[in-house]
């Protein structure tokens, strides 16, 4: 399959705050599917995951601005968010936890511009998922 590039949506009011995380613009805030891998980049943070380690995806949101912007970790589940906009994101669930710095996360949220496009690209690669904004059944 060809390489697919999905810029992270960067809200205009969020851009000054995102500089703290090293986000200059969409050139270093994106998700890329290439071959058998997914790379997510958000300023200083970078996650590389083999697609075989992604069990499912789930579109969620929108969220409150204060809980969605930046590189964020949920205290309860220790999942990480690369958030540039509160509009919504795609949650990627992992078979084996993925390391980002000292954290081993079970899931990553990415607030890409094209939520449905990333979901469709993952589905085309055999990864199941659901758009929770439309379907309220639990994630697989």
CATH architecture: Roll
Percent of residues in β-strands: 35-45%
Shape: globular
What CATH calls the topology is PH-domain like
H and E order: EHEEEEHEEEEHE
Whole-number tally of structural domains: 1
Largest sheet: 6 strands, mixed
Portion in helices: 10-25%
Question: How would you sum up this structure in a few lines?
Answer:
The chain is mainly beta and 140 residues long. The protein has helices spanning 15-18, 65-68, 115-124; strands spanning 4-7, 29-34, 37-42, 45-50, 54-60, 70-73, 80-83, 89-100, 103-110, 129-131. The chain contains 3 helices and 10 strands, in the order βαββββαββββαβ.
Which short descriptors sum up this protein?
140 residues, PH-domain like, globular, 10 strands, mainly beta, four-stranded antiparallel beta sheet, 13% helix, single chain, six-stranded mixed beta sheet
Describe the fold and architecture.
The chain is mainly beta and 140 residues long. The chain has one domain: Roll (PH-domain like), CATH 2.30.29. It is built from three helices and ten strands. The strands form two sheets. The chain has a six-stranded mixed sheet with strand order 6-7-9-8-5-10. Strand 3 and strand 4 form a beta hairpin. The model has no long low-confidence stretch (mean pLDDT 93).
């Amino acid at each position: 399959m060809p390489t697919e590039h999905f810029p992270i949506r960067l809200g205009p009011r969020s851009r000054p705050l995102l500089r703290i995380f090293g986000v200059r613009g969409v050139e270093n805030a994106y998700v890329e599917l290439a071959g058998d891998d997914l790379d997510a980049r958000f300023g200083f943070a970078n996650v590389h995951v083999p697609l075989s380690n992604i069990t499912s995806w789930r579109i969620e949101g929108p969220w409150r601005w204060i809980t969605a912007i930046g590189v964020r970790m949920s205290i309860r589940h220790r999942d990480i968010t690369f958030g540039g906009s509160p509009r919504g994101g795609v949650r990627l669930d992992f078979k084996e936890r993925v390391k980002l710095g000292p954290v081993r996360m079970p899931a990553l949220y990415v607030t890409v511009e094209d939520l449905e496009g990333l979901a469709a690209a993952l589905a085309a690669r055999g990864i199941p998922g659901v758009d929770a904004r439309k379907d309220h059944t639990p994630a697989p």
